[in-house]
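chain below, 178 aa
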Amino acid sequence: KVTGQYGDKTELIPHIMREFDKLPDGTVLIGELCWRDITKTSKDVGTILRCKPAKAIERQKTEKLVFRVFDCLAYKGEQYECKPYHERFNMLLWIIKNLDYIYEEGEYILNPIYTFNNFADFLQEILSRDGEGIVIHSKSYLYAPGKRPAWTTLKVKKITTELELPIVGFIEPNKSYE
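prediction:
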């Protein structure tokens, strides 16, 4: 929001919230709300997240948003944020493996897509299926809230057509970046 605060969207995704209720207290997972169909983008997710709860639930009658996890910062109160990404990711995979409900058909917390032998081939395969792109982390990446340093995280998106747009105004920044 303009206030700098995050909005509470939990009422819009009760099916996912029921899944989170199955996780032990003190568990913090990071992921992305998305559709199972990888051709849908954040704009499509916004058609749900910009609604009031009743409308959001109605729009999800036939297809529901899912939560694709990609990081684990804590499990049962044990902190993992100061550990390198590969350790956090291995913990995430352990949680998924040991929580049977995640693999049952019709559930809404999904495991990360993470297996590839060749980066270029994996990226091409995602893009060829009209996927939006991928994000990869260095194995040694230490969690840094609000940051995505170029030397630890790489986000690759499909190329879109170039647009020329005039700047008609701007808003003064409300935070000093150093």
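Helices lie at 14-20, 42-49, 53-59, 85-98, 119-128. Residues 48 and 58 are 9 Å apart (CA to CA).
thats it, cya
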